[in-house]
Amino acid sequence: MAYETKALFRDDAYLATAEGVVLAINEHGGIVLDATNFYATSGGQPGDIGYFERSDGSRIEIAATVTGETKNEIIHIPAEGQAVPEIGEKLTLHVDWPRRFRLMRMHTACHLLSVVCPFPITGAAVGEEESRIDFDLPDPSYTRENVTERLMEMVRANAPVSTRWITDEELSANPGLIKSKNVRPPIGNGQIRLVVIGEDGTIDSQPCGGTHVAGTQEVGEIHIGKIEKKGKENRRFRIRFGSLPLV
Ligand SMILES: [Zn+2]
Question: Which of 150, 168, 3 is closest to 73 using CA atoms?
């Protein structure tokens, strides 16, 4: 049977700690809670790591967070050799915040890159040090210099980043919201989460279940590390932290 975990990170990406009660331990030792601030791997964003604190102060290190049978069942995978909590036990959940915040900055940067390069996305991955997006983009006029400049303009403008929910029908009526060729938004649940950048989405709106910073300035200094040509019409852009190195 699939359990339902309340995904606290969906409403508040800044919850570095939270409380959860153990609902189940699966056959692989994975811990299922009633609620969690640990993001589960999906949509190109890696799941959280961190630790659970027990009432006696001891720790259970968490090495990965993934979804289970359904997207609403979140499974925390302990590192090897950790103590197993009791069913019903209340735990304090500590996300590895420096790592998560870097992923939030990177993930938000990916949205900004999709604004600078408004082309169909064929693949994407968010990483702690580097992220990448593959675009169907035959036009060679997008360079690391001019794309970096436009990204940093949006970062400095400090546009608000927020979320709102729309219905399947609203999404079907606005097919332009979907930028990814390969990843279909989860139509059929009735509600789709939109990530909105700028007042009323003036900069961008797209379906996304990940975690983002609240204002684009928090992304900080980023640059395009490398643009690789992948086949005739495909280009891979890498986003890195820091300023564009002088070559
Ligand atoms: Zn996103």
Answer: 3
